[in-house]
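S.,

Sequence below, as promised.
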Amino acid sequence: DAWYTGLYLRSDEGYDGEFNYYIAVDPLNKKGIYQCTGGGPYRYQRILFPMTAAVLSMGEMTRVPAILVMINLCAVLLGAYFLTRSSQHFLGHGWAGLFAIFAVGTLIALTRTTTELVYSSLMIAGFYYYLAKNNFPAAALWFSASVLAKELALPAIAAAALYEIAARKSWRNACLFLIPVGVYGLWQLNVRANFGMFSFQAGVEQGGFNSFKSLSGFFQRIGQTYGAVDHISVRQLFEPLLLTAILSASALAVYCMPFRLKDFISPFQIMAPVYAAAVLAAGFYPTSHIDYWGYGRHSIELFICMIFLYFQMRKKMLLVPLALNSLLCLCLCYLLIG
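The prediction came back faster than expected:
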């Protein structure tokens, strides 16, 4: 029998957290992980999170689940720390770090052990050294780690490079952002050597996952585990609030864009519309329904953009979607606790 047949899974569908576990117990793909990941090259591009768990577990499979959770908790603290430091630099106080903790995306990533917390916290650290410290080599290193955690860090790096070229007229600084792109490219060559294709090719073959049923099951388990909680009521609360927060953040992202590239005052004016489009695409794929799990999981990047835009532009209306997001997170925490 295959080595993974004895694993106990709560659902036959699973999601990214399940794949992170598979890779963490077989980081070098010596046991045929490709058979159970549903697109091995696609999953293996996000190597940093499971590889870190593999190293810390020292080959002991039973330690991996707890270590994955521990890494995500550390990522929350890391992101909150650098967000607080950024807030102190731009605003003189550090309260904005709370937005990294009390966010829907944070709650979902913690409960499902996905990679968003790791890559977003590394991205926040990179932007802290880039914007607050003007330490471009350090920023490039943090960004390099971020792209190995998840490929969606690449649009942020591209936005920073474009900002350096268009607004600051610094090709030298922009070229430093080629370092994380080169790191990602080297890892892709390794993926191709092991699987015979690049990650994006596997992603096209895979065509994505229908996570709506997983989300429904998540709320059903809430109702079963906590008898006083009606999962239908939770969804009725969850969906309109999150949709309002996402749409308002998306509208503000477009509003904050200037008409000319040379008028940009922040790389987040470029990033925010890109991540807004990404989170909307995640929510509406496939088009037969609205996938609120995709909304919540991918909303982390968009709300990070909103926070940094507030730091640099000081427009209080940017706090509206952030407040809605945090309110929803607190409501869900309250319902889960009972």
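The chain has a mean pLDDT of 79.

Coffee later?
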